Description:
Blueprint lengths: L12 H7 L3 H9 L3 E6 L2 E6 L2 H7 L5 E2 L6 H4 L13 H14 L2 H23 L6 E2 H16 L6 H16 L6 H25 L10 H7 L10 H31 L1 H9 L4 H11 L5 E6 L3 E3 L2 E3 L4 E5 H5 L43 H18 E7 L4 E2 L6 E2 L4 E7 L8
Parallel strand pairs: 2-8
Antiparallel strand pairs: 1-2, 3-5, 4-12, 5-8, 6-7, 9-12, 10-11
Helix pairs in contact: 6-7, 6-15, 7-8, 7-11, 8-9, 8-11, 9-10, 9-11, 10-11, 11-12, 11-13, 11-15, 13-15
Amino acid sequence: MADVPDSARFDESVRLLIEGYGFISKRCKALQSDVFQTRLLGRRTLCMKGEPAAQLFYDEARFTREKAAPLMLQTTLLGRGGVQALDGQAHRVRKRMFLSLLTQSGIDALLAQAEREWDSRMHELTTATDAPIDLFVEVQAIFCRAVCAWAGMPLRSEDVAPVRADLASLIDGAGSVGPRYLRSVIARRRAERWCGRWIKRTRAGEYVPAADSALAVISAHVDANGRPLSVKTAAVELLNVLRPTVAVAHFVLFCALNLRWHPEWRDRLVEQPQLVEPFVQEVRRLHSFFPFAAARVRQTFSWQGLEFKKGRRVLLDLFGTNRDGTLWADAELFRPERFVHKTPGAFEFITQGGGSPEEGHRCPGERLTIALLKLTTLKLVNDVEYSDHSLPADIDLRRLPMLPTDRYLIKGIRASSTSVHPD
C-alpha cells in the first residue's frame, strides 16, 4: 500500500493563512496527486480535492463530522452542538427539522419577505442623499430583517444594525486570527444569548410565534434521543437559520460585481431573464464561501491504494473542486453558459457541500440561496439604476471568507423605468 504523499516536513498553518483558498490545490498540482498529507495546527491532516474525493468524503460510513471542525469555527461560525457536527441518525433527525422549514412554501414565504424588505429599502435609498452606500452591508441588513421576521423574531428598527453586525461577524471572523476573530467570538456569545431569550420566552408561553416558524419549530423540536434541545443548542440551531441567510449577501455582492466585470451579462439578463440561474450558479462556483470542509476518518481504510488512518483529520477542497479543470472546461473563467445545458453532479459542484440535502451533508438551504440570488440579481438588473462610487478590481483569496480587495460602494440609486422578470 502506497504512502499518502507528504507536502512538507513542518507545520503549514502559517502557509495556509498566507495562501488562503489556493492552499490545497497548489499542493495537489505540485505533488501530482489529489490527496496529500500535511501538518496543520500541530495535527496530521489529509487534504484532497476532486469529484471522486468528494464522493468519498461524504461517505458517513468512513468519515465523521464529530470533533472535526477547528475550534475557531466552533466558537464563531458554527457554534457547538449544531447539526454540522452530527452524524448518522442524530444528523438525519436534526436535518429533517431544517428541511421542514425549507419546504417550497417556506422558501416562497421567505422570498416574499426578502422582496418586501428589498423594495422598501431601495425606495428609502432613492429618496436619500447621494452619499455612497456599501452594497454588501445593505444587503446583509435586508436579509437580516427578512429572515428574522420569517423566523418569528421580528426586529425593531433600532435592533437591525446590532443584530446584522453580530450575524455578519460570525461569518467574517471565522477564518481569521487577531481582532476580527475576537470580535466574532464575542458576537457568537451575544447572539446565542439573544436567541436563547427568544427560545425561553416561547417555551414559557410568554411569546407565541407562528406554528410553522423557525422559532416555534426549533423550540419544540425533539431530538433523536427523545429529548428537546437544550436552550443553548436550540439557540445554536436558530442561528443556523439566521446566519446562513445573512451570509447569502456574500454571493449577492459577487453577483453585483460580476455584472460590472462582465457588463455583457447585464444586457443578456435584461433580454433573457431565464439565464439568471446559470449566472448565479457560476457566481457560486467561482466564489465559494469557504475553501474547504472538515471531517475525521471513522475507521482505518484504504482508497486508491492509499491508507486513511482512524482519527485522522481530512480537509476537502471545495474551492479547488469547483475549479477542477478535469470537471470544468476553462475552469477559471466566468462562463455562465456552462450551466445552460449541464446539471452538475452531486459531488462535482460542492459550494454548499456534496451529496443529498436530505440524507447527506449538503446544505439544506441551497435552494433558498439560489432563489434569493435569482431574486436580487434581477432586482439589480431591472428594478434599480445606480453608479459606482468605487468598484473593486480584484478578490482577496487569502482572506477567509473571500471578499473584494476594496469595498464596493454605489451611489445615485434610482428606480428603473423598466422591470422584467422570468416566468
